[in-house]
Amino acid sequence: MSKGTRQGGFPFLDPEQIHRAAVICHRNADADAYLSAYAVSFLLRALAPGCEVDIVTPEGMTTLTRRLSRRFPHRVVEESEEEYDIFVAVDVGDTELLKGWLDKLKASKGVKVLVDHHPLRDRDAYDHVVVDEGATSAAEVVYSLFSEAKVEVDAKTAQALLEAIMFDSSHLTIAGPAGLKAVVGLLDSGADIAVARRELRSEPDYGEVLAKLKGAQRLKIYRLGTWVAATSLVGSFQAHVARALLYLGADVALVGGEAEGETRVSMRSTQRFSGATGLQLGTQVAEAVAKKLGGHGGGHATAASFSTDAGEEEALEESLKTVAGLLEAEAKPLE
Ligand SMILES: [Mn+2]
């Protein structure tokens, strides 16, 4: 297949018309978003030699991503006045996470493509979508574009995709058949799994460490029927603390705290809890409590958060009450 006449698949326009491209990550880009974008950039430059690619990270990137971006360097912009011939959004989920770039996308005549593994939302924002909700990472979906386009992955890009897949699959623990097959292909292309493990290891962030230990110190334990709930209060890193409480064995963890004049509550539950109860923390707890107390929130079945002007004690109590109500149980504190 000649590159100039490639039709139907990615990038969905004549590569000769691609001079400027923007590959957009979700806000505060994580490793899957950035490294997937890095690989999409390689693919675009292979299909349209000479095209210039910006990776866009609205509102920056996480600490780990910033470190990985030094290993996998690329031109990165948070904002830009450029005109682009093509926009490729990767790993974004909700278009809300594109931040200011959603308006830019809407206003542009460029071709808009979504490459993702999140449930498809706001289909209308894009001209073309390549979405596989069964994939554990956006990187797996990006990898499939290479074989479709018959472009070989070089060793560096293979390494980037491998690290993205490992990051989003808890080091392959939850990777599915497609993810594992992609991993084998990437290893064949020269990626190194030992290097990937090392590069994904984070230096401890002592702010986070102290928040987790304080969170454990202030822990309250409740029985909700046969389930165990844990609650705590910390000024920051509420999501990290909630996840840490699951590691300690809680089935569901609710962690609140006040910062910058508002209260934030993060919640996490185990897959086992979610599977057995069908309880959706995002819609049934975070969204519902935020609506009741005034504020906004949402999230997934096992991970959600909300913010409100109500006090932290009240917000946490209301969250616990809501979980208990949905389980038709009474929250019994354990001393
Ligand atoms: Mn992802």
List strands and helices in order, with pairings:
Blueprint: E1 20-24, H1 31-47, E2 52-56, H2 63-71, E3 76-77, E4 86-90, H3 101-107, E5 111-116, E6 128-131, H4 138-149, H5 155-168, H6 177-188, H7 193-200, H8 206-217, E7 220-224, E8 227-233, H9 238-247, E9 252-259, E10 262-269, H10 271-277, H11 281-293, E11 295-299, E12 303-308, H12 312-326, E13 331-334
Parallel strand pairs: 1-2, 1-4, 2-3, 4-5, 5-6, 8-9
Antiparallel strand pairs: 7-8, 7-13, 9-10, 10-12, 11-12
Helix pairs in contact: 1-4, 1-5, 4-5, 5-6, 5-7, 8-9, 11-12
Bound molecules: manganese (II) ion.
Explain what you see:
The protein starts with 19 loop residues before the first strand and ends with a strand. With 335 residues, it is of the alpha/beta class. The N terminus is likely disordered. The chain folds into 2 domains: 187 residues, inorganic pyrophosphatase (n-terminal core); 128 residues, Diaminopimelate Epimerase, Chain A, domain 1 (Roll), CATH 3.10.310. The chain has 12 helices and 13 strands. The longest helix is centred in the N-terminal third of the chain and has 17 residues. Bound molecules: manganese (II) ion. The site of manganese (II) ion has 6 residues, from loops.
Residue-averaged pLDDT: 94
Helix content: 40-55%
Number of helices: 12
Small molecules bound in the structure, each named once: manganese (II) ion
Q: Total number of β-strand segments?
A: 13
Unreliable segments (pLDDT under 50, ≥5 consecutive)? 1-6
Largest sheet: 7 strands, mixed
Q: What's the N-to-C terminus distance?
A: 70 Å
Domains (count): 2
User: CATH topology of the largest domain, what is it called?
Assistant: inorganic pyrophosphatase (n-terminal core)
Helix-and-strand structural type: alpha/beta
Fourth CATH level, the homologous superfamily of the largest domain: inorganic pyrophosphatase (n-terminal core)
Widest beta sheet: strand line-up: 11-12-10-9-8-7-13
Shape, per Cα inertia axes:
globular
Tell me the β content. Answer: 15-25%
H-E order: EHEHEEHEEHHHHHEEHEEHHEEHE
Can you tell me the CATH architecture of the largest domain?
Alpha-Beta Complex
What is the CATH first-level class name of the largest domain?
Alpha Beta
